[in-house]
Amino acid sequence: MSLRIGDQAPDFTSTDQDGQPISLADFRGKKVVLYFYPKDDTPGCTAQACSLRDNYTALKAAGYEVLGVSVDDAKSHKKFAGKYDLPFTLVADPDQQIVTSYGVWQEKSMYGRTFMGTVRTTFIIDENGIITEIINKVDTKNHANQILN
Questions:
Q1: Which domain holds residue 107?
Q2: What's the domain count of the chain?
Q3: Candidate list 9, 24, 45, 71, residue with the active-site label
Q4: Whether 45 is catalytic
Q5: In a domain, 3, yes or no
C-alpha cells in the first residue's frame, strides 16, 4: 500500500511510552508530525529525535503535535525518551500494524543481508486527518528544519 499526499491518514490505536492508549483520532483538529524510525537509541534515530526535541518549541508554535513510531515496545520507548529527555509521544508498534498500514514496513538490505524493517519516513497530517506532506529523504540531524520549511 502506498499512501499519497491528499490521502486520509490511516487511524491507529496503540500504546505510548507510558503504556497509555493512544490513537491518531485523539489528535483530530491538530496538525500532526507522524514520524517513523527504525529503532530506539541507535545513532540515526537518536539524531532525528534530538533534532525534533531541540526544535520542539518551534514545532509547537507552528501548531504541530509530534508522534514518533517504531516497532519497539513501550518499555524501550520509555527508556529512550528518558535518556534523551524527549518531550513528545513515542508510539509502540511491536506487532507492525501501524508501520504496515503506512507502507513503511519494507524489505531492506544491509551488508548483503535482506530483512524486513521500518523505512524512515515522516507524514505531515492536517487537522482533518489528511496527509499534506510525505518526507521520504529524512535528514536526521536537521529533520525539524525539513518540517518547518
A1: 13-148
A2: 1
A3: 45
A4: yes
A5: no
